[in-house]
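Project standup — Tuesday

K.O.: blocked on the structure for the chain from last sprint. Re-posting the sequence here as requested.
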Amino acid sequence: ETLVPIKDGSQPRSKILERNTSFGSDKDIDLHHEGERDTLEYRVHAKDSQEGKTISLWHDISLTHIDPKTGEPTEYYNFVCEIPKFTRKKYEIATDEEFTPIKQDTKKGQLREFKKGDLYFNYGCLPQTWEDPTFVHPDAEGCKGDNDPVDVVEIGARIVPVGGVRPVKVLGILMMIDEGEADWKVVTIDADDKWAPFLNNIEDVEKEMPGM
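H.V.: unblocked you, prediction finished:
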């Protein structure tokens, strides 16, 4: 993997698939586990707690966070957690399955984990986004999007569970080239984290939380 600096401050081109049935926060969402953990069949599904219907964590959560008390849009984005901090199992949204549940990634039939150990941040994606595999960003060295939701690194103190939905504040963005594809990472912090009011960009992170 290669880190590529973004010269013009532009963000990845991603398609936003807004739906009338979008959930604006984790309100009225229940998570359900199917199959046994550490098996190929294990899935984490989201359901509408009011109607009991299965929903998609990718398609049915709005990109913009909606305040559950007022019903008004906020300045934050929704973040869907795939891999909680201090864990290493490589969970991801199954984009090719009905209702796009979260599953553990595999390679050659084996469940995958991060070889270098546990992550020090929550990792997941922005709902209703998509990295266009036909688009080449000027700084992407000729590489196209990876055909997945836009990835998120969330550096707050809270451990977000697999499938958890949280409002986040964007601090910066970087791009990695992974096996010939542009793989964007949006760096964020939980909107309710005690450090969120003091962090507005990556420079603030380096100043206020050195070593993060």
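K.O.: great, moving the ticket to review. The chain is about 5% helix and 35% strand. The CA atoms of residues 16 and 75 lie 17 Å apart.
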